[in-house]
Write a structure and sequence with these properties.
Strand content: under 5%
Shape: globular
Number of helices: 17
Number of strands: 4
Structural class: mainly alpha
Order of helices and strands: EEEHHHHHHHHHEHHHHHHHH
Distance between the termini: 27 Å
């Protein structure tokens, strides 16, 4: 690492790709965390209002599940070119462009008055969200390498804190009877303000290869360790997607809480998810990534089983908190492992893994709705508990994780 006369630091990350930094490692970490935080607030603003959409449109569980299909569908659409855009323009420029679009797309959701309109706006929300997500996680990997410590889980912790904050804001505004459109624009304006101030501290991360490489297909299927990492991400994201989209409804329909208090299930999950991600740096150092991934899978299954078998408010909250703790570090660890793959650029490796993982968001929410319509919401949640055990099993098959 050497310092130029302009006060910029030029260094090589673990992929030997150039990174230009005008800020200290702490400033970079704070700026990246701010973007994760606001992305979490935006997502929670939508997720916490799902029961309102369901009630106002008179949707049953199957109909809601079908509409929820639209959000991950939008995310999947961009999987085929998001990595190429991030590699070509750099994660900093991509974040400056896509974070505002994501915030504005949130406000469109409040304009929906029918199911098909909501689905259309969710596709747009998914497209802008994934473009922002790939750029942000690529920036996160660069920031982790620049900082010199395994802090990826703390970035995702900032997302979870943002998610918890967004849920609490929604809880307050629902009880104040503030309309969704006003609610979503308040969040959007805060997000736009963050882009203006925090983007100045981001890393100019160039993820292009240093030497010419052979041209590859437009979309390359992941291979080897990236496939297994993708399946682990799939199991974790299926659990997360269930909690994001259905936790408030579970507390309203199964635990029998009033509509204006049902968000407490979502908030309890997010509280422990955030806490676990900030503890992730310590836990990885103490147990190692492999052991922590295995423990996390077991905790997910235990928490989900408790919430399903004993659906009273105390046990259900405790179960949801265990689920939040279990999923907290899985995706950050998987992205960090994938992003530091020496054979594939960070943006492309993360896209390969997340392209498998996001299929969980694509199929998970509709599956919950359809199974619930045929039997019960409790039964559909019970099916999801199996994914925790599958994570624990799959991790034993990956020798490269330490």
């Amino acid at each position: 690492m050497e310092e130029s006369t302009q006060g910029q630091e030029i260094l090589l990350n673990q992929e030997n790709k150039p990174v230009i930094a005008q800020s200290s490692p702490k400033q970079v970490r704070l700026a990246i965390s701010a973007f994760y935080f606001m992305q979490g607030v935006c997502f929670a603003s939508w997720a916490s209002r799902i029961p309102t959409f369901k009630a106002s449109m008179g949707l049953n569980d199957a109909e809601l599940g079908s509409i929820l299909f639209a959000l991950p569908a939008g995310q999947i659409i961009t999987m085929f070119f998001s990595a190429k855009l991030t590699t070509h323009f750099g994660s900093k420029k991509m974040l400056r462009a896509t974070a505002p679009l994501y915030a504005i797309a949130l406000t469109f959701l409040a304009l929906a008055s029918t199911g098909w309109q909501l689905a259309a706006f969710l596709v747009l929300f998914g497209i802008t969200g994934n473009l922002c997500n790939i750029a942000l996680n690529t920036q996160g990997v660069a920031g982790e390498n620049y900082y010199g410590k395994p802090i990826m889980s703390s970035f995702h912790g900032a997302w979870s804190i943002g998610n918890l904050t967004g849920a609490l804001i929604a809880l307050g505004l629902v009880n104040l009877k503030l309309g969704m459109y006003t609610h979503f624009w308040i969040v959007a304006l805060i997000s736009l303000t963050n882009v203006v101030f925090s983007s100045k501290k981001l890393l100019d991360h160039n993820s292009k290869p240093d030497v010419p490489v052979e041209k590859t297909k437009f979309f390359t299927m992941p291979q080897g360790i990236l496939v297994l990492l993708g399946v682990i991400a799939f199991c974790s994201m299926a659990t997360e997607g269930t909690m994001f989209d259905w936790s408030a409804i579970y507390f309203e329909d199964v635990v029998k809480l009033p509509h204006n208090k049902a968000i407490i299930g979502y908030a309890s999950f997010m509280f422990m998810m955030a806490s676990g991600r900030f503890l992730g740096v310590y836990l990885i150092g103490k147990f190692g990534r492999k052991n922590l991934l295995q423990i996390s899978g077991a905790i997910i299954s235990i928490g989900m089983a408790l919430a399903v078998i004993f659906p009273n408010i105390i046990v259900a909250i405790f179960g949801f908190m265990l689920i939040g703790l279990g999923v907290s570090s899985i995706v950050p660890m998987v992205y960090s492992i994938a992003g530091n793959n020496k054979k594939v650029p960070a943006g492309k490796a993360i896209t390969m893994v997340s392209s498998i993982g996001y299929f969980a968001f694509l199929f998970g929410p509709p599956l919950i709705g359809y199974v619930s319509q045929l039997s019960s919401l409790r039964y559909s949640f019970g099916i999801i508990s199996v994914f925790g055990l599958l994570i624990t099993f799959l991790v034993t098959k990956i020798k490269a994780i330490n």
